[in-house]
Each structure stands twice: as C-alpha cells, then as structure tokens.
Design brief:
Length: 405
C-alpha cells in the first residue's frame, strides 16, 4: 500500500472517495475549455486569434449537453461515448464556425479505453477516429485537409492510446499487489507448516528419549526391588544404572528443550545430537538392563560421513526399536542390530527372537504404536521407508531404508 504525500494529498483522497464529484468538476472544466475555445479562430492573419468569432446558440447547447454527459462517464462509459459522438457529429456537420465539441468525445473515449480490454479499445477507438474524421472531412464546411480535421484524428487516437496505457498500468499494479498478498499468505502458511513440523519433530525426539530411558529405569528399578534383600550388591549396581539412565534422560531432555528457548534466554547446551558414533553407548544401556544385543555396522571402506539428519534418524530408530524389544519381548529375548550402507542408501535392521511370553507386536501395548509411527515419520521425512512386523517363527523385525543423498 502507498501513502499520498504532498500538499494536495487530502484533496486527492477526497476526490477518490467521491468520484461523481470529481467527474462533475472535470465536466465543468471541459465545458469552460470548449466555450473558451469556441471564441478562438485558428486561421487569423498572424496565427490563432481570440475574440474574432462567436459560437452559435446551438453550438453552446451542444457543448453544455456534451459536458453534462461527462458527469456519468464512469457509470455508463459506452453510453456517454455514444452520446458525445452523436453531439460531435451534429456540430461537425452544422456548426459554422465550428465549436470544439469533439473534446468531450476525447475524454469519453479515454475513459472507456481505461476501463475495458485492449481489443475492445482499439475496435471502438478506430471506429471513433474514422467516423469523426471522415464526417469532418466529407460533410463539414471546412476543406478535407483542414488542420481541425487532422486534429480530431490525432486527439481521438491519443485518447485511446492513453486510456489503454492507464488500463495496462492499473492491471500491472493490481497484479503486483495480488502477488504480494499471495506471497504474504504463502509465507504465513509456510511458517505455520514449519512450526507444525518442528513441533512434530520435537515430539518425536521427546518420545524417543523418554520411552527409552524410562523403560530402562523401570527395568532396573524392578531388578533392584527384587534382589534388594538377598543380593544388595546387585541391587546397588541396578540402582547405579537407574541413576545413569535418568541422568542421560535429563541431559537429552535439556538439549531438546533448549531448542525452544527464546533469543534472550541463556544459551542452550551445545552437545552434539546423538548419532551412530554413540551407538555403543546406547547398546550398553540395554545390555545393562538384561537385553543381549549383537551389533553389526558396515558402512563400506570409505563412505564418508553420513548426513546429520540420516545419522540422527538411524540412531533414533535403533533406540526406539530396542526399547520396544525390552518392553514387549518376553524373558530371555535377544536382539540383533545391523546398519549397512548399500549404494546411496543406509539400511537399518533390528531383529529380536521374541523370547518367551512376548506380545504379538509393540503396538499391542495399551496406548502403544507411537514408536512405530515415529519411525515411519522419520523415514518418510528423509524420503525413505520403514517396514515393521512379526517374524516367522516368533519375534519382531524393523527394517528402515534411509537415502544418503
């Protein structure tokens, strides 16, 4: 949006708010110009002279009627143009001396050209130019080559061209404004989409952290309670694992929540995000909780570092899958983890044998299923895939393919 500046800003704003009043002022100015011009003789001995001729009463009437029609030029542009053309033709064929009634046609043609499409403008403009000029040359009292006849042709042509230029500029400005508004709406929608995606990502991270560590704390606390009286040394070791798991949970929660801090808040922790480099630490926590885990990582001879998003996704998938094994597999369950880079993809597979008395699947637990959903969302976000389901003969299998490029 633009703001009018200058000493006439208030007047311009008032005229825009009252277009009929502006058209009335314009019609009055056109009438004064036509009347004044009707007293001038362009063929004086030393050039145009003023006051050497007087218009006829009929010409004055035609000028008043033409100026009055201009008051409605915006409401009925075609009707006003037709009326001014008819009045101009009457003056061209009967007026002697001729009065400049055609000035009203010039204004009406400009108005129509500025409010219609280009083909219509040029069709009507050419008809107006040819009609008025032809009648002035063939039926008027002046010779066909008189400069007044050429002037009618030139002025009507310029009116059509000026009106078309104004219409084009107005359409251009409207298009720019519409694009700006659409860009603003798109920017707001994009911001809302990014906020929603960030909330979902943080929710997945919180779920992975809390589900993993709380599951380990629950297992170790149960072990400590079971052996507290008979084997206090083993209970002490289990409580130490509870302390380590809770400390890790707090650290990861602090790092995740630090992303939500405002710019003026204290600095968030700068610890790097977890990845496959910390896979041994992750697996050790499960081994301490009583889940035997075998790990096989094969990333090729010289694969280069994995992208940060792929590295984090692989770590979280393994974390969530092993958590599900610990929560839902039966006693004596064993797990296998493999991370293999195949071409332009990294494949992560987590298997378990189900143990004894296992649930059919991780999603069968009350309120479960968010872990599998989170793994699928992580994979789909990176353009990969995730498949999970029971294995033939017992156990569960999670297979995730993450594109590296």
């Amino acid at each position: 949006m633009t703001t009018d500046l200058g000493p006439f800003a208030r007047t311009r704003r008032w005229l825009r708010a009252h277009p009929l009043a502006f058209d009335a002022v314009l019609a009055l100015g056109a009438l004064v110009s036509m009347v004044v011009g009707s007293f001038a003789d362009p063929h004086g001995p030393h050039g145009p002279t003023f006051g050497t001729r007087t218009p006829e009463p009929f010409s004055l009437l035609l000028m008043v009627l033409a100026a009055g029609a201009l008051v409605f030029r915006r409401r009925r542009p075609r009707a006003v143009l037709a009326a001014t053309i008819a009045l101009s033709l009457l003056e061209l064929t009967t007026g002697e001396p001729r009065a400049p009634v055609a000035m009203s046609t010039v204004i009406a043609l400009y108005t129509l050209a500025s409010r219609t499409d280009r083909p219509t403008t040029w069709r009507i403009g050419l008809l107006t130019m040819a009609g008025l000029t032809g009648v002035a040359m063939l039926a008027g009292p002046l010779p066909w080559y008189a400069q007044e006849n050429i002037g009618i042709f030139a002025w009507t042509g310029m009116a059509a061209a000026a009106g078309d230029a104004v219409r084009s500029r107005r359409a251009f400005v409207d298009a720019i404004r519409e694009r700006a508004e659409r860009a603003e709406r798109t920017r707001e929608e994009e911001a809302r989409r990014r906020v929603a995606e960030e909330r979902l990502r943080i929710a997945r991270d919180l779920h992975d952290v809390v589900a993993h560590h709380i599951a380990l704390v629950n297992v170790q606390a149960g072990v400590a309670a079971h052996v507290m009286d008979k084997r206090p040394d083993q209970a002490k070791e289990a409580l130490a694992h509870v302390r380590d798991a809770s400390r890790s949970a707090l650290n990861e929660l602090r790092a995740t929540v630090g992303l939500l801090r405002q710019s003026g808040d204290p600095e968030a922790p700068t610890e790097p995000a977890p990845g496959l480099a910390r896979l041994d630490e992750l697996v050790d926590t499960f081994r301490h909780a009583g889940l035997p885990v075998k790990v096989m990582v094969e990333l090729g001879r010289d694969p280069g570092p994995l992208p940060a998003a792929v590295d984090l996704a692989a770590y979280r998938v393994i974390q969530e899958a092993l958590t599900n094994v610990r929560k839902h597999a039966g006693p004596g369950a064993r797990a296998e983890v493999s991370v293999v880079r195949v071409g332009a993809s990294t494949e992560v597979t987590v298997l378990d044998d189900g143990g004894t008395g296992a649930d059919p699947s991780p999603a069968s637990a009350p309120g479960g299923g968010h872990g599998l959903l989170g793994m699928r969302e992580r994979a789909s976000t990176l353009g990969g895939s995730c498949s999970a389901g029971p294995r033939y003969g017992g156990g569960f299998r999670v297979h995730v393919v993450l594109p590296v490029t």
